[in-house]
Specification:
The complex is a heterodimer. By secondary structure, chain A is of the alpha+beta class. Chain A is built from five helices and four strands, in the order αααββββαα. Chain A has one domain. Chain A has a four-stranded antiparallel β-sheet with strand order 1-4-3-2, covered by helices on one side. Chain B starts with 11 loop residues before the first helix and ends with a strand. Chain B is 49% helix and 16% strand. Classes of the chains: A alpha+beta, B alpha/beta.
Chain lengths: 159, 443
């Protein structure tokens, strides 16, 4: 089900005139404990929510400046799991999607839900993972940035 | 006839318990938000320890403020002990905050897989309030280093004081990053409220007890300098008059922190013991010329407004347990002892005063002491001699002067070294520890 949902979302990107590589689409549909090694190498907490708590897609900024590459990365904090997919167009960050953002309790989820749009917008503005830590969401911000950096690196490596 | 026990005061022990209880709560905040339970790697361990050292360091900084707030229930603790706590707590506080900084930076760098320098840059520029807190930490380092004895000696009081006062700013600068980045406070209204409350209590006590109350008292009692009297070469008494002073809660043997509202004086406060028992009409302090500030006190104009903070000091008659008492003074330590001689309970013959001074010319209040001793029926022993006479105030000497000294309350006040030597002699003379009340000065 996750895989299908993600595939549907890939359509606008394809319409932008480029091929979207959804590298880990199949891995995502598995429990996070398996998806984790693709990320920061940390094991997610026992009992963490498997279902994504937040699913949002960034506004697309279609450009025609060159090849479009995407990559997905997962990062975990001791308290939550974050999975991002980035799209680079002509080497520039044009799109950031939050595929999964789950916390181990309601409070963490609230913190995550508040921080996520800010972080996503900051990332698009900066065009990189070099973004401010959102006040009151240190852990979320740190793993968001880590996952973002790794995804960007991975997408670049595909060039 | 044993003297009735004074009402129970809050002691150093009670205060330690209160401070420790809050420290436990602070560590509890950290434990509740993971503590060291959810650590999977070295980076996580460093970060977690960094969090708890930061919380405790911030807490000790507040404790440091409270030690200076002249809290009335702490007045019996005594300035010497208070200043020792202040020193130790200050060092512990800085050590924790430095550990916090190093641990967090190293933990994050390890976690991000970047060099320390790059992580430092990231922390300073990308984390809310961390730059301010780092400036604050820098100030605290300066404050502590400038208070190391060897450094302190090379600084004028004015410079040292200005540096030391910047600690308030340093503590304020650290506040914003605690709530903004501390995991313990994210989405935790109770933890946030507790943290705010700690700061509010500290700030409230400081403002209330060091600003509002002293100013209100100064106005209500119309405290002004009445006379400045030279007592001996380099020693001057200042008499402060006012109204309704019987309601000022200071006792013979205690000291107040004095602020004289004259040009060049208003910005600093200094503790001086009362050198006469308060009589409701006037207070008197006697000051030895030991430096720039004390020298300038002699030229304070009559009529200068005075603000007092405090009182402090446990050298009062509230500590009396036995019918007989020996009062031992060294040098200018005679000031509070002289005040005690006026007001401490005792039948004629029950009070003995031993006054150790360098030379005949150094003896203060000679006439006043002789007169008071006559009135109270007290024995008065002047012990004169140069500094190195170690047989003076030895156990044997004390026993010769006051044969039943082991069954008396004993009050000791003098310069630190003399106080120390005298306390050792008293112990050798068989005076139980619980009989002795002492205060050194010149800390």
């Amino acid at each position: 089900m996750n895989g299908r949902a993600v595939a549907r979302r890939a359509v606008p990107a394809a319409l932008a005139g480029a091929a979207v590589v959804a590298l880990l689409a199949n891995v995502r549909s598995r429990p996070p404990s398996i998806a984790a090694p693709a990320g920061a190498g940390r094991q997610p907490p026992v009992g963490a929510a498997v279902e994504p708590a937040v699913r949002r897609v960034s506004s697309t900024r279609p450009t025609r400046r060159g090849p479009v590459r995407s990559a997905t990365e997962t990062a975990t904090t001791p308290f939550s799991i974050i999975q991002l997919r980035v799209t680079l167009t002509g080497g520039e960050l044009t799109r950031v999607e939050t595929l999964e953002l789950s916390g181990d309790n309601a409070r963490t989820e609230a913190i995550n839900a508040r921080a996520e749009p800010i972080l996503r917008e900051e990332a698009l503005k900066a065009g990189s993972a070099d973004i401010d830590v959102v006040s009151g969401a240190t852990y979320t911000s740190r793993s968001y940035r880590k996952s973002l950096q790794a995804a960007i690196d991975r997408a670049r490596a595909r060039g | 006839m044993p003297i009735a026990r004074a009402r129970r005061r809050i002691t150093g022990w009670d205060v330690s318990v209160l401070v420790a209880a809050n420290a436990v709560v602070v560590v509890g905040l950290w434990w509740r938000q993971g503590g060291i339970r959810e650590i999977h790697d070295v980076a996580g361990l460093l970060t977690s320890l960094g969090r708890v050292t930061g919380l405790l360091g911030a807490y000790l900084a507040l404790v440091e403020l409270l030690l200076l707030a002249r809290i009335p229930v702490l007045d019996a603790v005594g300035l010497e002990r208070m200043s020792r706590w202040h020193r130790l707590n200050g060092i512990a506080c800085l050590a924790l905050l430095l550990a916090h900084t190093v641990l967090i930076t190293a933990g994050y760098a390890l976690d991000d897989g970047v060099p320390l320098l790059r992580e430092t840059d990231d922390l300073l520029t990308r984390y809310s309030g961390v730059l301010l807190a780092t400036v604050g930490l820098g100030l605290l380092v300066v404050v502590v280093v400038s208070s190391i004895v060897a450094v302190r000696r090379r600084l004028s009081y004015r410079v040292w004081h200005a540096l030391h006062v910047s600690a308030y700013l340093a503590i304020a600068l650290g506040f914003s990053h605690q709530l903004a980045t501390g995991r313990e406070f994210q989405g935790q209204p109770v933890a946030r409220a507790y943290w705010w409350a700690l700061y509010a209590v500290a700030l409230g006590l400081l403002i209330g007890l060091r600003l509002a109350l002293p100013i209100a008292r100064s106005l209500r009692h119309r405290l002004r300098i009445e006379r400045v009297v030279p007592e001996a070469p380099g020693i001057v008494s200042i008499q402060i008059g006012g109204v309704g002073l019987e309601r000022l809660p200071v006792r013979a043997g205690q000291s107040l922190h004095w602020r004289f509202l004259a040009r060049g004086h208003w910005w600093e406060t200094h503790p001086f013991s009362l050198s006469a028992a308060p009589d409701g009409r006037r207070l008197r302090i006697t000051v030895k010329d030991v430096g720039d500030y004390t020298r300038r006190l002699a030229s304070l104009p009559v009529g200068t407004r005075v603000i007092v903070e405090g009182p402090s000091g446990g050298l009062t008659s509230a500590a009396r347990r036995h019918a007989r008492v020996a009062l031992i003074a060294g040098g200018v330590g005679i000031a509070p002892i002289r005040a005690l001689l006026e007001d401490t309970p005792g039948e004629p013959g029950a009070i003995a005063v031993i006054y150790r001074a360098g030379r005949e010319a150094d003896v203060l209040f000679r006439d006043e002491l002789d007169e008071l001793a006559r009135r109270r029926g007290a024995e008065l022993h002047y012990v004169l001699g140069e500094r190195r006479g170690d047989e003076l105030l030895s156990a044997e000497h004390l026993q010769a002067l006051v044969p039943d000294i082991a069954s008396r309350d004993v009050y000791v006040c003098g310069p630190p070294r003399l106080t120390e030597v005298t306390l050792a002699s008293l112990r050798r003379a068989g005076v139980p520890r619980g009989h002795i009340v002492s205060e050194g000065f010149g800390w």
